[in-house]
Design a protein that fits this description.
alpha/beta; two-stranded antiparallel ribbon; Sugar_tfrase_EpsB_2; transmembrane helix; Rossmann fold; four-stranded parallel beta sheet; globular
Length: 469
């Protein structure tokens, strides 16, 4: 399936088709149900008068609300294709039930109970059938369009790694036709198709109807990579990606093992102008203020539960590294015992850490422990979305092992981030490396659109405990 760049973010064509189809389905379901009231035009006219607005206005509002609910339950996430059809339907039903309740409450204030019930139940039945039909239809369209055929230029470990990732892709499926040799050959390619270098690359591309070329060779100088032949293919209109471009485009991350500073220097992105900073600050103030008001009852109950569960302070203050490497005190609800680091040695938190209290285990899984950081957002020390801030001792260690680690400090740290909604919880050096690849993608492609997307996906992560700690 093809990928499009939307507001600096890469989105699969299937996702765009689902969004478009769902929005039209929700809108026309509301319009059709309204026009098909049991009493015909007379009932429709009477309802329109009681609603004091044209039906299409309510239909637009209904469509927007349902799309947001679909997004909240994760129907548009990349992980949705890995759930299986049954789980997708169950999540869709959950969204429909919540949407039905909200729609009934809104309509019942202006309509009698019978009319409100008819409108809501009928619309939801149409949507359930339509949602299944849309997914099946898009699956059929995908098959008709065909899967892009990919040729990998390279036969080393990097080529093997790209081949494995191509096989794992689902929403962004690709079909690997083979490898074009560049010198070094990885032994794991034994059973795969490797072409002879004697055949010109442009002839091979034409013969095999290749749609895309991925250059997966760590060293592209010295004659190993046929640059002239790649140029000939590019002139013919065949897209050519290096490893960094491939991973950024189809996996929304920036690989650090093969990353070169020149690629970061010359590639698009890293927009941090005054307009972007001002927009982000306004966005942070508005969202954090609203969330603080909504979360106030939860925060009060959490504070009481922590106090009753174990001795010690309710709020845990810990030094973290923020924008430009400056340090600040990060606030969290205490989820561990007070003697968690009594020897003064900083440790990674493990998945089933014995230092976590009973209440702490719950608030960590539901991310409630992060709520006090909304105050840091209001103060300007943090943002709603950005790389998670690390402790100074960990930062010094990670800078020695992870290339370009300091780039994450070019933006404010966030309460949630792209790495948090794309990678399950982990607490090791290897996990930090992988999360950094997602953080690099965010730093490079950050935008208000991506911030909103991360916040929406965070709801799904919290609701269904994806990547639970």
């Amino acid at each position: 399936m093809r990928v499009f760049r939307l507001f600096q973010h890469h989105v699969a064509l299937s996702t765009l088709l689902e969004l478009l189809a769902d929005s039209l389905l929700c809108y026309f379901a509301a319009v059709f149900v309204f026009s098909a009231l049991p009493g015909g035009r007379a009932d429709a006219a009477a309802v329109a008068v009681r609603l004091d607005q044209a039906p299409w206005v309510h239909a637009l509002g209904f469509a927007a609300a349902m799309l947001l609910l679909y997004a909240f339950v994760g129907l548009y996430r990349q992980a949705a294709v890995e759930m299986g059809f049954g789980r997708v339907v169950r999540r869709a039903i959950l969204a429909l039930v919540i949407g039905a309740y909200i729609a009934y409450v809104v309509l019942a204030s202006d309509l009698d109970g019978q009319s409100a019930t008819y409108l809501v139940v009928s619309a939801m039945l149409y949507l359930l059938v339509g949602l299944v039909a849309v997914r099946l239809g898009i699956s059929l369209i995908t098959r008709l369009l065909g899967v892009p055929r990919v040729l990998i230029v390279g036969t080393g470990p990097e080529a093997w790694s790209v081949a494995q990732d191509l096989q794992a892709l689902q929403r962004l499926e690709r079909r690997l036709v083979g490898f074009y040799p560049t010198g070094e050959r990885d032994g794991r390619l034994g059973g795969m198709r490797v072409f002879e270098r004697s055949e010109p690359l442009e002839d091979l591309v034409e013969r095999l109807a290749v749609d895309e070329i991925i250059v997966a060779a760590k060293e592209q100088r010295g004659g190993g990579v046929p640059i002239d032949q790649l140029l000939a293919c590019r002139i013919r209109g065949v897209p050519i990606l290096d490893m960094s471009g491939f991973y950024e485009r189809v996996k929304a991350e920036v690989p650090i093992d093969s990353l070169k500073a020149s690629w970061l220097v010359y590639s698009q992105g890293f927009v941090q102008g005054p307009a972007r900073r001002a927009a982000k600050r306004v966005f942070d103030i508005l969202t954090s203020s609203v969330l603080l008001v909504l979360a106030a009852p939860v925060m009060v109950l959490t504070a009481l539960a922590i106090k009753l569960d174990s001795p010690g302070p309710v709020i845990y203050r810990q030094e973290r590294v923020g924008l430009g490497g400056r340090r600040f005190m990060c606030l969290k609800f205490r989820s561990m015992t007070v003697d968690a680091e009594k020897d003064g040695v900083a440790r990674w938190a493990s998945k089933n850490d014995a230092r976590v209290t009973r209440v702490g285990r719950f608030i960590r899984k539901t991310r409630i422990d992060e709520l006090p950081q909304l105050l840091s957002v209001l103060k300007g020390e943090m943002s709603m979305v950005g790389p998670r801030p690390e402790r100074p001792s960990f930062v010094e260690e990670l800078k020695q092992h992870i290339p370009f680690y300091d780039l994450r400090h070019s933006v404010k740290p966030g309460v949630t981030g792209w790495a948090q909604v794309r990678y399950s919880y982990g607490a090791s050096l290897e996990d930090a490396r992988r999360k950094h690849q997602f953080d690099l993608y965010y730093v490079k492609n950050n935008s208000l659109f991506l911030d909103v997307l991360v916040l929406i996906e965070t709801v799904s992560v919290v609701l269904f405990r994806e990547g639970a700690r």
